Amino acid sequence: MKLVITMSRRYGTGASVIAQQLSERLQIPVYDKVDVEQELAGRDYASEVDVIRKLAGEPCIILGRCASEILKDKRNVFNIYICADMEDRIRRIMDKEGLSYEEAAGKISRTDRERAEYYYENTGKTWGDVNNYHMILNTSDLGLENCADILMKYFERKELV
What is the CATH number of the domain that holds 46? Predict the structure, then answer.
């Protein structure tokens, strides 16, 4: 099966680390906002939809960009949502970007708000609604390092890889 993984995430959860670990194990590429925008002919959502559908023609991991909704009717797509406690997210962003506590908290708040607005504007649905995902992983509870292991075991057990 040509497994396509979509990964929606709150800012600062470490989802990009999980995506990279899965990419290495499954030997499939990870695409994010930058990758999608590089492929665009235009700068509208319809163009993004076309790019995401094209990328999903082969096994890959797509971070964000409403990919879970765009590809919801595909049988080979597995939708994941990554979350974490706010304090863990703030600490991760402070360490990663060298920001103060207040700066990191503000950036997280702005980024989450922008992602929620983008998702709603383009899908009419609520970002992070549990009904839109096959699995939700909380990196605060599970540990960032365990999430890729959990997903790999699940994919193997379900014979998706």
Answer: 3.40.50.300
